[in-house]
């Protein structure tokens, strides 16, 4: 029996959710701009049908000035991917690392656009090593599974 041909294709890119808040404006615009930045990432995968997956990457940036929120921006960038012919050891890193790596530049651009349109200096998010984040996640899952085993 011939091995199934491997296929990977991006079917659709879209913003699934977006939020921009400036709870302390306009007063925040009169303060000296010395921001504290908190950056969070989360990803989610949903199987839509055989070999078709929605992967979403949520980027959350919270910027504070003197303990008050200057702005909070959250973008959930999603994509629909056809992935077939890969075994579980190949599929998992594709969904957990490769797909978010494709989505991140779009999310980064949306964050930057929202921040600038909100009247703030550009927010240039650094590149993210999704391979390292994925490996860290796998190691945490393995450690958790090891801790829950009966001795």
Topology summary:
Blueprint: E1 7-21, E2 36-49, E3 52-65, E4 68-84, H1 88-117, H2 130-147
Antiparallel strand pairs: 1-4, 2-3, 3-4
Assigned CATH superfamily: SecB-like
Q: What fold name goes in the CATH topology slot?
A: Bacterial Protein-export protein SecB
The level of helicity is 25-40%
Sketch the topology as an H/E string, one letter per element. EEEEHH
Count of distinct structural domains: 1
Report the CATH C-level class: Alpha Beta
Mean pLDDT: 92
Content of β-strand: 35-45%
Euclidean distance between termini CA atoms: 43 Å
* Secondary structural class: alpha+beta
Gross CATH architecture: Roll
How would you characterize the largest beta sheet?
4 strands, antiparallel
Structure, explained:
The protein has 151 residues and is an alpha+beta fold. It has one domain: Bacterial Protein-export protein SecB, CATH 3.10.420. Helix content is 32%, strand content 40%. The chain is built from two helices and four strands. The chain has helices spanning 88-117, 130-147; strands at residues 7-21, 36-49, 52-65, 68-84. Strands 1-4-3-2 form a four-stranded antiparallel β-sheet. Strand 3 and strand 4 form a beta hairpin. Helix 1 (88-117) packs across helix 2 (130-147). The longest helix is centred in the last third of the chain and has 30 residues, at 88-117. The chain is elongated. The chain starts with 6 loop residues before the first strand and ends with a helix. The model has no long low-confidence stretch (mean pLDDT 92).
């Amino acid at each position: 029996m011939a091995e199934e041909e491997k296929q990977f294709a991006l079917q659709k890119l879209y913003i699934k959710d977006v939020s921009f808040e400036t709870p302390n404006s306009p007063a925040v615009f009169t303060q000296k701009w010395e921001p504290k930045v908190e950056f969070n990432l989360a990803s989610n995968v949903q199987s839509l049908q055989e070999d078709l997956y929605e992967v979403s990457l949520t980027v959350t940036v919270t910027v504070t000035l003197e303990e008050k929120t200057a702005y909070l921006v959250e973008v959930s960038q999603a994509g629909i991917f056809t992935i077939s012919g890969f075994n579980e050891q190949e599929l998992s890193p594709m969904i957990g690392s490769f797909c978010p790596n494709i989505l991140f530049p779009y999310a980064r651009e949306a964050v930057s656009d929202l921040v600038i349109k909100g009247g703030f200096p550009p927010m240039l998010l650094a590149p993210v090593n999704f391979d390292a984040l994925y490996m860290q996640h796998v190691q945490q899952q393995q450690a958790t599974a090891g801790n829950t085993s009966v001795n």
